[in-house]
Write a structure and sequence with these properties.
This protein is mainly alpha-helical. It contains three helices and no strands. Keywords: Bacterial flagellum biogenesis, Cell projection, Cilium, Flagellum, Repressor, Transcription, Transcription regulation.
């Protein structure tokens, strides 16, 4: 493989770029920490779906917080024994069930 250096590169024409006055975003210190008054509206309105509303008001307690606290305590104490092979096998089985 050889490189032909006899061909001159093409010239690029000059581009006329005009300076634009760009507004810079204010620094965090410059932003007012005053809360927005209730009478002011931002113009954005959000309507949650019925499913989202049901999720927010769900009180079925799917999470066993007592068991979770015990697991966290065991992790913090270094007493939690994890079988990485069992975790990996469960993940692989789960992937194949999705296919």
């Amino acid at each position: 493989m050889s490189i032909d250096r006899t061909i001159q590169p093409l010239s690029v024409p000059a581009v006329n770029v005009q300076q634009q006055d760009l507004k810079m975003r204010p620094k965090a210190a410059d932003i007012s920490a005053a809360p927005v008054a209730a009478s002011e509206t931002s113009g954005t309105q959000i309507k949650l779906s019925k499913v989202t509303q049901a999720i927010q008001t769900d009180s079925s307690q799917d999470v066993d917080y007592d068991r979770l606290a015990k697991i966290r305590a065991a992790m913090d104490a270094g007493e939690l024994q994890l079988d990485t092979d069992q975790i990996a096998n469960a993940l692989v089985e789960d992937i194949f069930q999705l296919s």
